[in-house]
Amino acid sequence: MMTSISSRPVPWALYALTIGAFGIGTTEFVIMGVLEQVAADLNVSIRQAGLLISGYALGVFVGAPLLTIASARWPRKRVLVALMVIFTLGNLACALAPNYSMLMVARVVTSLAHGTFFGVGSVVATGLVAPDKRASAIATMFTGLTVATLLGVPAGAWLGHEYGWRTTFWAITGVGVLATLVIALMVPRDSGDGEVLGWQKSLASIGRPTVLLGLLMTALGIAGVFTVFTYIQPMLTGIAGFSQDAVSLILLVFGVGMIVGNLLGGRLADRGLAPALIITLAVLAAVLGLFPFALGYQWTTVVFVGLLGMAGFATVAPLQLWVLNRAEGAASLASSFNIGAFNLGNAIGAGLGGVVIERSGSFTAVPGAAALVALTGLAVAVWAIKREHGESIEPASAIYCEQE
């Protein structure tokens, strides 16, 4: 009896991309767990050490479109391998950095691989599976990012505390070597020969209203998540009454929620992209809106921390697929721009939360502001869907015409 195309097992190449995503996700966030060690060792303030996070995010935002354009005509497998080499060398430079300035440069160099990897990787992932499994393929790759938050970052922080922060970056360098090898061995050569449009036409494709609206949805949705999550520690200790020791365990609940939400969002998008966008953004807004009430009890706080991770990352695969599908001829570039929008949303959310705290003098107003941001993202999604005037919600041509 023949196996249907939609029931084929997940190809090993997809798991190779997941390993790469795990490494990149770990290196992005692990610095938060070793800030004090970095500051003490390099003789800088905690605030200066914190700029290593901002520098990385800025590198992702700027580097994603630039590197994607520069490598647009390369075979996609070659692009992925080259990006992992940059990632590995960047982390090696972090481990060897003699001073703060060199560490900042190394962090920025490492970040250049981030957006383009997820952008090109998303396109490759969708080509490895049946058409009705494209969103799930993206979600599988992004599982590496969520597992990095759940396991990679705590493990890296532990290494830094026990053996010094440089050991953390040596370990991530090892992950980079592994990811480079498995991608080189497992990703098929026929993963695509790059995009056929010149950079001017590619940028024009990104400028289509439906693509721009998708980027705006991503920035707003993620901004809603990080408006709250950036300040989750003082909310847990100052409002819900948890001890500092309990915070790390509660953050594990957030990580589990991320993994579940990421996979659930992919399955919803495979069934219907437009409904998935509406449902995931609406649930995110509802969770954020109810979050202040949950902080009144410790058990509801823990539940809602998990729901925040689940609702926030359930939006990732649908948003990525929306942008990817609507940038015909420039899917890799559009997907990379979307990763940049993700990081921009991260920065906007952190800034917005800080403004709300400063002006209100309380953390309790932060989730309400975050809910309004998410609701704005939902309104943009509704508008974008209505704007298509009955056109197909899930055109396949944007992906498959590039891979032929």
Number of helices: 17
Spans of at least 5 consecutive residues whose pLDDT stays below 50 are 1-7, 392-404
Percentage of helical residues?
Answer: over 70%
Strand content: under 5%
Coarse shape = globular
Largest sheet: none
Residue-averaged pLDDT: 84
Supply Rg.
Answer: 20 Å
Structural class: mainly alpha
Query: Count the strands?
Result: 0
End-to-end CA span: 29 Å
H-E order: HHHHHHHHHHHHHHHHH
SSE map:
Elements: H1 12-29, H2 35-42, H3 46-70, H4 76-96, H5 100-127, H6 134-163, H7 165-186, H8 199-206, H9 209-229, H10 232-238, H11 244-271, H12 273-294, H13 298-314, H14 316-326, H15 331-360, H16 366-387, H17 397-403
Helix pairs in contact: 1-5, 1-6, 1-7, 2-3, 3-5, 3-15, 4-5, 4-7, 5-6, 5-15, 6-7, 6-11, 6-14, 9-12, 9-14, 9-15, 9-16, 11-12, 11-13, 11-14, 12-13, 12-14, 12-16, 14-15
Keywords:
disordered C terminus; 80% helix; globular; mainly alpha; 17 helices; single chain; disordered N terminus
Can you walk me through this structure?
With 404 residues, the chain is mainly alpha-helical. The protein is 80% helix and 0% strand. The protein has 17 helices and no strands. The chain has helices spanning 12-29, 35-42, 46-70, 76-96, 100-127, 134-163, 165-186, 199-206, 209-229, 232-238, 244-271, 273-294, 298-314, 316-326, 331-360, 366-387, 397-403. The chain is globular, with a radius of gyration of 20 Å. The two termini are 29 Å apart. The model is unreliable at 1-7 and 392-404 (pLDDT under 50).
How would you concisely characterize the structure shown here?
By secondary structure, the protein is mainly alpha-helical. It contains 17 helices and no strands. It is globular.
